[in-house]
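Exam revision sheet. Question 4 asks you to relate a sequence to its structure. Input first:
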Amino acid sequence: MVLFKTVELEYEARLSACDGSPDPDAGGKAEWKRYGDDTERLEVKLWRLGIPDGATVYISISHRPVGSVTVSDGRARLLIEGGEGAAVPEAHEQDLLRVESGGGAVLEGTFRVD
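Answer key, structure tokens:
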């Protein structure tokens, strides 16, 4: 049985390479959703990072750390889903999502209503 949830609120951020990023064509997308059952979900997909496999990148929303992921084949993905005690970091319209590695910003983008 497939269970569909009603999306009550959704923000999306298109991530672009920052000055000094290892690959100027790096990109990504972040989606934050709140469903009708009050659960939430954050998914961040990153590509063409130009960072060696096995390296860790750190993700924050408006300077609040939300997680870290390991790079594989120039890509990385973070998924945090609410429910059963899992806390999903809050996001709001105009919040800045930033991806950092080695102390410097690699990607960033601003959440917008989707």
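Marking note for examiners. The radius of gyration is 14 Å.
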